[in-house]
Specification:
Layout (H helix, E strand, L loop, with lengths): L11 H16 L12 E6 L5 H12 L3 E5 L13 H8 L5 E6 L4 H8 L4 E6 L5 H15 L5 E6 L6 H10 L5 E6 L8 H9 L5 E4 L2 H4 L5 E4 L10 H7 L7 H4 L7 E3 L20 H19 L4
Parallel strand pairs: 1-2, 1-3, 3-4, 5-6, 5-8, 6-7, 8-9
Helix pairs in contact: 1-5, 1-11, 2-11, 3-4, 5-6, 5-11
Length: 304
């Protein structure tokens, strides 16, 4: 039995297999519409989510399976003090596979240790978000035709942004990927990511707070919001939330074939005027997330 807690739980070969399967599902959805008949997905979401939860549910329904679960800790027995370990023991009797989002880092790991069904980490605190990473990778691969030989700019909240951490971990395994890390000083990537991932793998990267300067060099610009829910001090959030706003004027600096990604939701870090630019692909990215989650569910259930 396999779980997906971190992007590193998948080898490059497994990752490429899931991405190729996702692309085939994208082209031939009817071929996969009955693959999970008789199977159930449990969605255990201890904190708010729109895209991730609904895309998991859409993925399982598209495969012919069924869905059960809860959308907040308040509507589960966690509100009564039940542990993650006990919850997953029970859910293992009700479903065939589980997707869990939790505000505490490591909670899905605890669930996997006590589970009798595959557990998918749908986001744990500021740590990891591996299925968003799969979504990002299938978007890049589909639009650019490759995952190597590119310069990736990451802009905004790089300290708490679990999508950023997961994507860096995944992309360092492909050759000749260079990073431009754009953030305020207070929201730079964590030390462990810098030392244990980038430096340890001899990855070329630049840390800066100047988006316009590096825009012409980027093949991908990965925008993120400053996450209010990760701040203990509201004054710090207010001071930093508008640090970088991508607008049409800044897009003038970019290559004609550069793509803008965003894990969503956005607040105001991308002006709505950018939505009409063909290089803005974040809504298409959200759509691709359903296909790659379909592929992942099939893979973990041994149905591919």
């Amino acid at each position: 039995m396999k779980h997906l807690i971190s992007p590193l739980d998948l080898s490059v070969e497994e990752l490429d297999h899931i991405l190729c399967l996702g692309q085939d599902i994208m082209k031939n959805p009817e071929k996969y519409s009955h693959v999970c008949e008789g199977k159930k997905l449990a969605t255990l979401f201890y904190e708010p989510s729109t895209r991730t939860r609904l895309s998991f549910e859409a993925a399982m329904l598209n495969l012919g399976g069924k869905v059960l679960g809860f959308s907040s800790a308040d509507s589960s027995s966690a509100a009564k003090g039940e542990s993650v370990a006990d919850t997953i023991r029970v859910i293992s009797s009700y479903a065939d596979i589980c997707a869990m989002r939790h505000p505490k880092e490591g909670a899905p790991t605890v669930a996997a240790m006590h589970s009798e069904i595959p557990v998918i980490n749908a986001g744990d605190g500021g740590h990891n978000h591996p299925t968003q990473t799969l979504t990002d990778l299938i978007t890049i691969k589909t639009l650019m035709g490759r995952l190597d030989n590119m310069t990736v700019g990451m802009c905004g909240d790089l300290k708490f942004g679990r999508t950023v951490h997961s994507l860096i971990n995944a992309m360092v395994r492909y050759p000749n990927v260079r990073f431009i890390l754009i953030s305020p000083t207070e929201l730079m990537i964590p030390d462990y990511l810098r030392k244990e991932v980038l430096d340890a793998n001899n990855i070329e990267y630049i840390e800066t707070n100047d988006l316009e300067k590096f825009m012409p060099e980027l093949d991908i610009l990965y925008m993120t919001r400053v996450q209010k829910e990760r701040f203990f001090n509201e004054e710090d959030y207010i001071r930093l939330k508008d640090s970088f706003i991508l607008d049409a004027a800044k897009m003038e600096y970019a290559k004609k074939d550069m793509y803008v990604l965003h894990p969503l939701p956005r607040v105001n870090e991308i002006a709505t005027e950018v939505d009409n630019d063909p290089r803005a692909v974040y809504f298409k990215q959200a759509k691709f997330g359903v296909y790659v989650r379909m592929a992942l569910i099939m893979n973990l259930l041994g149905l591919d």
